[in-house]
Amino acid sequence: MLNLFTRPFRQPAPKLDGLGAGFIALPLAKGCTVPAGSFAVLANKDGHTRRLSEGARVAILDGETAWCVHPGPYGCELTPFAAAPEIGLRVRFAIDAPDPREAQQRFDLFLASEAAQQVALEGFVMLLQSALQRELEQGNLNLPPCTSFEEWNAFRTGFNQLLYTRFGVMVDDCVPVDLGASRDLAALLMARLASQPAPAAAHTVQQTAFDPALEDAKALRRLFLELPGVLCGLRLALLPADCAVFRRHQDLLRRLDLVSLSVGTMPALELAAPGQPLALDQQRRRARHSRRAAAALDEAWALLARIKLGDAALAAALLGEADRIVANLECDCAARRDIAGESA
After folding, report:
1. How far, in Å, CA of 108 to CA of 43, rounded?
2. Residue 325 to residue 64: CA distance in whole angstroms
3. What pLDDT score was predicted for residue 340?
4. Which of 76, 94, 78, 74 is nearest to 86 (CA)?
């Protein structure tokens, strides 16, 4: 008999326990339906991304990874100053809606370049806190004691733009809080002390904890996928109509374009030359240069946030900061490439 009355196969509902609470994004299987209140992000190996709205059927192409994303909102407590864990900010944020003016949404780029199969809220909050602390340490954001109303507004504006430019999230609310009553400061200090190895064993512990293959791959993927976005943002910077500023701006774009080209043609971590393996200590040096270049990339995103907030005169003044960041990218990318030549 012909199977004329067989029931159509139904894809089981995706397992998304904790989405919207402990997790921001969870993996989706092929053929699933995007649940209500969420959206899907699909990214291929080249970093190209696309979004699917709720109710859409997830058709994953070869080489693509799919995430189910809950836009939030999410609440967290950030520590702006690492040396003062009792000072906190209670922040409420959400994943930004698609911007039709952008070819690629910033949070989608984050998923393609940095995210693993899951994006836990706790880990994502640590990234937000790290970005905030770095900007405060460098003096790019100011949060002085007894902050005035004008100083708080200036901080909020810069903080909002930083998180939007770096991660693609919108800050709904941010208020200062005293965390001294809710955190055991003595336990925090003891845990920080326990995490520091003894001086004699520090070098050994660092070598065993550092995985050069993993760190190098993560950093190079970020550089390969995100440098074009930084280059595009810098190209669109509003600058004064001045020939000297124009030439300086064009030179920065040219140098950044060459850095992007260099990242795309990096030699393999484990090879000094075709068929010649590279020593493990040299591989570690390569991976550290890649990681330092990724740190400069974080500074570049933060600089773009400042440029977007300022006028043409401020953007021109920030070109000196851009020159320093591009120089660090050039230095570390060139050092990673030249290690094989040093060892030959």
Report:
1. 8
2. 32
3. 60
4. 78
Report how far apart, in Å, the C-alpha atoms of 192 and of each of 83, 166, 198, 209 are.
11, 28, 13, 17
Average pLDDT of span 120-135: 94
Question: Could you give the C-alpha distances from 258 to 83, 84, 329, in angstroms and in order?
Answer: 39, 41, 10
Residue 200, pLDDT > 70, answer no
Q: Kindly report whether the peptide bond that precedes residue 73 is cis, defined as omega within 30 degrees of 0.
A: yes
Altogether, the residues listed in the chain come to a count of 344
Lowest mean per-residue pLDDT among 196-210, 212-226, 254-268, 301-315: 196-210
Say if residues 306 and 322 touch (Cβ distance below 8 Å).
no
pLDDT(2) > 60: no
* Residue 140 per-residue DSSP state: S
- Burial-class residue 150 by CB neighbours within 10 Å (0-12, 13-18, 19+): exposed
Q: What percent of the chain has pLDDT over 70?
A: 88
